[in-house]
Design brief:
heterodimer, A: 529 residues, alpha/beta, globular, disordered N terminus, B: 362 residues, mainly alpha, two-stranded antiparallel sheet
């Protein structure tokens, strides 16, 4: 073991000196819910200074295991050892007291409170005084920019995640658990986070890293434990494996690579945005300035950008949730649509998939059949003369379930009871099965497992090849590179010129995401003059 | 051992149905304790309060009579509450309905007008209630004013307006200076269902409203819109529903139903306008709406139960010499318990074994 390796860009080796014990060890952990075994005899060792990946599809049992490590659930059988001693974690507080910190995939933030207040609430000893400075300090040190005084409800998903990370780092944990931490970060931010994690490791901490992004795991982690169906199916050194071979272990089969057939014929522009400028209702919102782009029939256009740079505002403007000032700012299939309502836009063949699955795309406590009405009430088959046809709605849920392999416990459960990936498949299926001529989709595979993500991306490409135009907003650059024909980048409410994906340089896109190279207002004026 | 609340994956339908029953049971237990503290025999008191009225035909009719306005108002309120619009002022809308409908009875008094008077009174009552309810709704939509406060305060405005009218311009000249209008003519009086009883046509109207509400909420897009706006406002905007328009709509509907209840009550049981025509129906209906799970059929059952507390309160006052205000205590407890029990729809109680000192703790 030499230090040079540990701090090198590539991951170092886990430290397992003679006579030492693991920081945390799971011994024969079993968790049952009734007849269902979520975790079946899990054995796992996490050593100090190790970055340990936990891999598996949605429903493989990762969350259950991690919740037990964090004290949120109690195992049915088996035990955990902390530095060789058996321990019982009665709750998150007792886990935190031992030095276990966790950043969740689904945030636990109070929307009405500020960033600093949320951080303070997450700390076991919470002096509100001075918390602003501490948040600012940590967020600066780890490159996670945050304004401590802003209310959470104004923040995008990416910014909310930063709060969770900062909150955790403030507690100085010995073992840091990260659940899908990078899904909303730019490549530069991911690099920064990885640097942070490597620093944390050299400080003697261990990291349990849950991710679907196999490339990241291979770049960062020393060890990977792979779960499938609640069992450990393998432990490997991810650097010695290929992404394909790890994916095979996770899924049990080879994942088909997403492919467009290449022989693309682009048609007339289906979506034309001309000089769209919009003042936000919310004083902290992003002002859209002079946004112009086109999406022709058959094309998938990717919109890259760091969270909170105007994507939410652009989505709202395109969907009609916020009306534009002039009708001709947005043209859909040759029709000036800037003043149309979202319902009218759906009528002329547009479908929308927002970033937030629960609460925006679906009502959490409504059944899936009821949730079909959210976009489906526009079409004539589900609603006739003001009366809804439950038979049609249930049939549509079945159709989505079959076409998109939505896994659920009963035929018509509440949306909130589905796992993230399955709910996303439902939402994507609900919109694509309407066979839209234009699809606006935001974060199509956020927090979705590899198999489901591939299916969703394939569905997007297939839709485009049937002649629809698709705009994909995503913070996952790999995804955009995989499925998009052209890329645009949004930063601070302004849009870059489009680039053909095949020729687009990642470094350059990263620079654009950071705001370097996007024409400012003055330039735009000059260009028009 | 300690108790913990654990979130359920799905709403528990069983608890949603059971919660009002648990709440009623807890109210009865607390009530028994209360009677004991007042020095009354608890079981005897509960029997007089809650059971005896059910064995008496007169009291049963009276329950139906009192349940009628409660059902009408609570159905309207349930639409508001489902849509996350908090109309607390149904009492005021009830009074305004009685006033606007009663106005026609006052001006046609003794003119020999035909049978069109009663239906026109119903329409005017509903219209008056709806317009009155639109005041707080408008201020909420336009300026973001809290509809809870403004609708509640308008109750007192309505009470004082009624007070003014019956003491001033509408006072019966032959009424020995009592603050009351002249007795309504026959054409302005709600017909009774059975000769010689107080059970009137309003009960049938209430049942029709229950059926209509069940259809609207369960089977129409409007009902879906109402439920969605309340449950997930952002998803509702995404669905293209206008929450402001819906706030106005639900307030108008609930105001209309409260106003209708007001004019029905006056034309069927009081037969003239006077202060105190409502023993707090508009407020009690809030309890009815929640006890009935904001569900039309549930509201029908809950309204009968709350009507029973009115009747029981009266007989308890007579035979036990307890204050009539005990009725309000019971109603308040009931609302408290039903809201508390609702927690169990989304959460389950788990008994946690307190762990012995953690093994190997250093």
């Amino acid at each position: 073991m030499d230090d040079a390796v540990a701090v090198a860009p590539g991951p170092g080796r886990p430290v397992q000196p003679e006579g030492q014990v693991p920081l945390l060890e799971a011994v024969g952990i079993v968790k049952r819910y009734g007849d269902f075994t979520a975790n079946d005899n899990i054995n796992l060792q996490i050593w100090p200074t190790e970055v340990h990946a936990l891999l598996g599809e949605n429903g493989a049992g990762k969350s259950t295991l991690v919740k037990m490590i964090y004290g949120l659930l109690q195992p049915t059988a088996g035990e955990f050892k902390w530095q060789g001693e058996p321990i019982v974690l009665t709750g998150p507080a007792s886990a935190r007291a031992r030095g276990i910190g966790m950043v969740f995939q689904h945030f636990s933030l109070f929307e009405q409170l500020t960033v600093a207040e949320n951080v303070a609430l997450g700390l076991d000893t919470a002096p509100l005084a001075g918390i602003d400075e501490r948040v600012a300090e940590v967020s600066r040190a780890y490159g996670l920019p945050l304004d401590p005084k802003r209310e959470v409800w104004r923040l995008s998903v990416g910014e909310r995640q930063r709060i969770e990370i900062v909150r955790c780092l403030l507690q100085n944990p010995k073992l840091l658990i990260l659940d899908e931490p990078t899904s909303v970060l730019t490549p530069q931010e991911v690099e920064q986070l990885f640097r942070t994690l490597r620093v944390l490791r050299t400080e003697g901490r261990a990291i349990l890293y849950i991710s679907h992004k196999l490339d990241e795991v291979r770049a960062l982690c020393d060890t990977a434990t792979i779960l499938r169906g609640g069992k450990v199916v393998g432990t490997c050194d991810p650097r010695a494996e290929s992404s394909q071979s790890i994916a095979r272990m996770m899924v049990g089969t080879d994942i088909g690579e997403v492919r467009s057939d290449g022989s693309k014929k682009l048609g007339a522009p289906r979506l034309v945005v001309r000089d769209l400028s919009l003042m936000p209702d919310d004083p902290h919102g992003i002002r859209l300035e002079g946004i112009s782009f086109e999406v022709p029939a058959g094309e998938v256009l990717g919109l890259a950008g760091v969270a909170g740079n105007g994507q939410d505002e652009l989505f709202a403007a395109l969907s009609g949730e916020v009306r534009s000032d002039r009708a001709d700012m947005i043209t859909i299939d040759g029709r000036a649509a800037g003043r149309l309502t979202i319902t009218d836009r759906r009528r002329i063949g547009v479908a929308f998939v927002p970033e937030e699955r629960l609460g925006h795309a679906t009502a959490p406590r409504f059944k899936l059949s009821d949730n079909t009405l959210i976009s489906g009430h526009v079409a004539g088959s589900m609603v006739r003369g003001g009366f809804i046809d439950r038979g049609q709605m249930v049939a549509f849920v079945d159709h989505i379930t079959k076409s998109y392999d939505v896994r659920k416990g009963k035929p018509d459960p509440e949306a909130a009871s589905l796992s993230g990936g399955n709910l996303q498949k439902y939402v994507v299926g609900r919109e694509i099965l309407r066979e839209p001529k234009l699809l606006i989709i935001s974060q199509p595979t956020w927090g979705v497992d590899a198999g489901a993500a591939a299916a969703i991306r394939q569905a997007i490409i297939d839709l485009a090849s049937r002649g629809a135009a698709v705009l994909v907003m995503s913070q996952d650059l790999d995804e955009l590179y995989e499925i998009c024909d052209r890329l645009v980048v949004i930063c601070a409410g302004r849009l870059s010129a489009p680039r053909v994906t095949r020729h687009a340089d990642r470094g350059e896109i990263g620079m654009l995401m950071a705001g370097v190279g996007i024409k400012g207002k003055e330039d735009a004026h000059a260009a028009r003059a | 051992m300690r108790l913990a609340l654990e979130r359920r994956a799905e709403r528990s339908i069983a608890i949603a149905l059971l919660s009002p029953v648990i709440a009623i049971a807890l109210t009865l237990v607390t009530g028994a304790i209360l009677f004991a503290l007042l020095g009354k025999p608890p079981l005897e008191a509960l029997r007089i309060y809650f059971f005896d009225p059910l064995t008496d035909p007169w009291a049963l009719q009276e329950i139906a009579v009192k349940a009628t306005p409660l059902v009408l108002i609570a159905i309207g309120l349930s639409m508001c509450y489902l849509a996350n619009a908090w109309n607390i002022g149904a009492e005021g809308q009830f009074l305004i309905g009685a006033i606007t409908g009663g106005w026609l009875a006052v001006v046609t008094h003794g003119t020999g007008a035909g049978y069109w008077v009663l239906p026109a009174m119903m329409l005017l009552g509903a219209l008056g209630g709806a317009l009155y309810a639109l005041i707080p709704a408008f201020f909420k939509v336009r300026f973001g004013a809290s509809e809870i406060l403004s609708s509640l305060m308008l109750v007192y405005v309505a009470e004082l307006l009624l007070d003014y009218l019956v003491r001033g311009p509408w006072r019966d000249p032959k009424g020995f200076n009592f603050p009351t209008t002249a007795e309504f003519d026959d054409v302005a009086t709600m017909p009774v269902l059975i000769e010689g009883s107080r059970l009137h046509l309003g009960a049938i109207i209430a049942l029709l409203v229950v059926a209509a509400a069940a259809i609207v909420l369960g089977r129409t897009l409007k009902g879906f819109e109402i439920r969605l706006v309340g449950a997930a406002p952002r998803a509702a905007r995404f669905a293209g529903f206008d929450d402001k328009a819906l706030t106005l709509f639900t307030f108008a509907v609930s105001g209309a139903l409260a106003g209708l209840a007001g004019i029905i009550e006056v034309s069927a049981t009081v037969h003239h306008l006077q202060p105190g025509i409502s023993p707090g129906y508009g407020f009690t209906a809030i309890i009815v709406a929640f006890l009935g799970r904001l569900n039309p059929v549930g509201i029908l059952i809950a309204a009968m139960f709350l009507a029973l507390t009115f009747i029981g309160g009266e007989s308890a006052q007579i035979s036990l010499k307890v204050p009539l205000d005990l009725t309000k205590v019971f109603q308040g407890m009931l609302l408290f318990y039903v809201l508390a029990c609702d927690t169990l729809i989304l959460y389950r109680i788990r008994v946690m074994q307190t762990q012995k000192a953690v093994h190997g703790a250093r």
